[in-house]
Specification:
119 residues; alpha+beta; 2 domains; 6-stranded antiparallel beta sheet; 2 helices; 34% helix; transmembrane; YgfX; transmembrane helix; membrane
Length: 119
Amino acid sequence: MILCSFLAWPNLASSMLVYAQLLLALLTLCLMVYCWRKLTRWQCIFSLDKRGFAQIVEHSSQTYLVDFCRRALVNPLFCMIFLQDIHSGERRILWVWHDMLTDTEYRTLCRLLLQLKLA
């Protein structure tokens, strides 16, 4: 869809502008392929137990112990979880979309998030 917009440009008399247009289209295509490949290799494992202890394991196998800094936003489409690293204090937001999990897993996650008592 994005690359179709290059076809809507008017006819250019100057060959230099045509080459600039082709270069821009090629760069856009390369950026889209790069982002797609990076996205297909990305993974994040979020663990939450019934006592409220949470951890994140990223693709580099680095484990972060995290705490909740705010109450999570839970709705039928997604959960927005506000986390803070226990050691460094770095804050991050974790989005979990409904279609990332099975229905049972998503309901269990929502139930656990809603049961957490934050001071």
